[in-house]
Write a structure and sequence with these properties.
about 300 residues, alpha/beta, Nucleotidyltransferase, domain 5, five-stranded mixed sheet, globular
C-alpha cells in the first residue's frame, strides 16, 4: 500500500504542522545550564558555556559567561527576566548554591513566575555538598557553606596532581580554605570581610562612621589622618595581614608547594599581598557547574 508521495510527512494522517509539533516533542531542545551563587550580599548568575580554556591553570573547569549580579536583599524581577530572555530563551536548568535561604527562596519564586508567565520550562535544582565531586573530611559537611565547597571542588581540578591548594575567597566573609593533595576538603578559617567589618564598627559605636569602598585596592597608607582613613587603614591592613598569616599557616598544613588561588569581589584588597596567587574570579560558579558535570 502506498504511503509516500508528494507532501508525505512520514506519519500517516499527520499534517505538516502536526508533524513539526510531533518532531519537536520527540526531539526537545537541549536545556541551557544556568548557575546561581546566592550569597549574603549578591546573587551571581551565569551561563555554562562549553568546556574550554579560561586560563592555562583552569583548562578543565567548566567555562562560564554572560554574568549577571543581583542584590540578594532586594533584586528587581525585571532584571532577572531580561537576563533570562537574553541567555536562555528556551528550556533551562538552574543550579542553585546558596548560603542565604531567604534570598534563595525569593530567587526560586521569581524563576517559577518567569517560567509560568513565559510558558517555558525553567527547572531549578538546589545543590548540596553530596552533589559535588569532593570528599569533605569534616564531621558535619552539611553545615559548611556550599560556596566554600564549590570553590574547593573547582580548586581540586585546577591544582596539579599531588599538590594541595589554598583558596582565598574575599567576599562578605573572607575565607582561607585548604584542599589536600588528594583533593579532599580539609576546612580552613573564616573572618569578616571589609564591608562587614566597617558595618560592625559603625553599628557597634556611637560616633564612628561607616566607611565604604574598601575592597577595590590596597588600603591607605599609615597613619590614617582622619577617622575615615584610620578605619580604612585598620580594616584594610588588618585583613591583608590576617590573610597573609592564614595562608602561611595553611602552607604548614598542606605543604609549601600548594597552589594558591584567589577569588571574590574584594580580592583587590589582598591581591598584591599574595604573590604567586592564581586569580580565578568565577571559581565558585565553575565549582557549582561541576555538580551537573559529575552527573553526566
Amino acid at each position: 500500500m502506498r504511503t509516500g508521495g508528494r507532501g508525505d510527512t512520514g506519519q500517516r494522517g499527520a499534517r505538516p504542522g502536526e508533524w513539526r509539533a510531533m518532531n519537536a516533542a520527540a526531539h526537545p531542545p537541549a536545556e541551557t545550564l544556568l548557575l546561581a551563587d546566592v550569597g549574603n550580599t549578591r546573587i551571581k548568575l551565569a551561563v555554562v558555556a562549553e568546556r574550554g580554556r579560561v586560563g592555562p591553570t583552569a583548562a578543565r573547569l567548566p567555562r562560564v559567561d554572560r554574568r549577571q549580579d543581583l542584590l540578594s536583599r532586594d533584586f528587581r524581577l525585571t532584571n532577572l527576566e531580561r537576563w533570562l530572555a537574553a541567555v536562555a530563551p528556551g528550556p533551562a536548568l538552574l543550579l542553585v548554591a546558596s548560603v542565604n535561604d531567604t534570598a534563595a527562596a525569593r530567587l526560586g519564586a521569581a524563576i517559577a513566575e518567569v517560567s509560568a508567565t513565559g510558558h517555558r520550562p525553567l527547572r531549578q535544582r538546589r545543590i548540596g555538598h553530596a552533589d559535588l565531586p569532593l570528599a569533605v573530611q569534616l564531621d558535619e559537611p552539611q553545615r559548611v557553606g556550599i560556596d566554600r565547597l564549590a570553590s574547593a571542588a573547582a580548586a581540586g581540578i585546577v591544582k596539579p596532581a599531588g599538590r594541595g591548594a589554598i583558596v582565598v575567597d574575599c567576599g562578605t566573609a573572607t575565607t582561607v580554605d585548604i584542599v589536600a593533595p588528594d583533593g579532599a576538603f580539609l576546612g580552613g578559617a573564616i573572618l569578616p570581610g571589609p564591608a562587614l567589618m566597617a558595618r560592625a564598627l559603625a553599628e557597634g559605636t556611637s560616633r564612628l562612621p561607616e566607611v565604604a569602598a574598601l575592597d577595590h585596592g590596597p588600603p591607605p597608607a599609615m597613619p590614617g589622618r582622619s577617622t575615615q582613613a584610620a578605619i580604612a587603614a585598620g580594616i584594610g591592613w588588618g585583613i591583608r595581614g590576617a590573610v597573609a598569616r592564614l595562608v602561611a599557616e595553611a602552607r604548614k598544613a598542606v605543604g609549601e608547594a600548594a597552589t594558591l588561588i584567589l577569588t571574590g569581589g574584594s580580592a583587590g584588597l589582598v591581591r598584591d599581598a599574595l604573590p604567586g596567587a592564581v586569580e580565578l574570579p568565577d571559581l565558585v560558579l565553575a565549582g557549582i557547574a561541576l555538580a551537573e558535570a559529575d552527573r553526566s
